[in-house]
Amino acid sequence: MRLLSLLAVPLLATMISLQSCNTVKTIPMEDIEVLSESHYSQFTDTQNLVVKSDAGLQSIYDRIATKEATPQINWNKNQVVLLAMGQRNTGGYSIAVDKVVYGKSEILVYYETKGPKPGDMVTQALTAPYALFTIANKKDLPVVFKEVNE
Fold this sequence. Notes:
8 strands; 19% helix; 4-stranded antiparallel beta sheet; 4-stranded mixed beta sheet; single chain; globular
């Protein structure tokens, strides 16, 4: 029994050490800068994009319904993420970032989509919801998108 307890302490220390090597950091929502979001855009297909240049950001601003000027981004520090839901036949749809998690080998962007419930009053117009926001630029890490179900 004493031998077992002597082995348990180093084993537990090793497990804690290995756990801390796989660092994961969830970014608080108040630290995520939303650049633009709306129910109207020219993104007719569902798409999730990572933008890393002024030209790429300008091409997005050319397709969204905003009168805002294209913001200046410090590309050494940030990258921009677009979540586009694609065209819908009515109002009542939305897409939004839920959380961003920086892992050791990837950046996880969790997002949520919503649609109208049966019987909801909605606008009878084509919509194409999107959300555009900045995240830290971790050049070596791929961005992986995951939809969160309610």
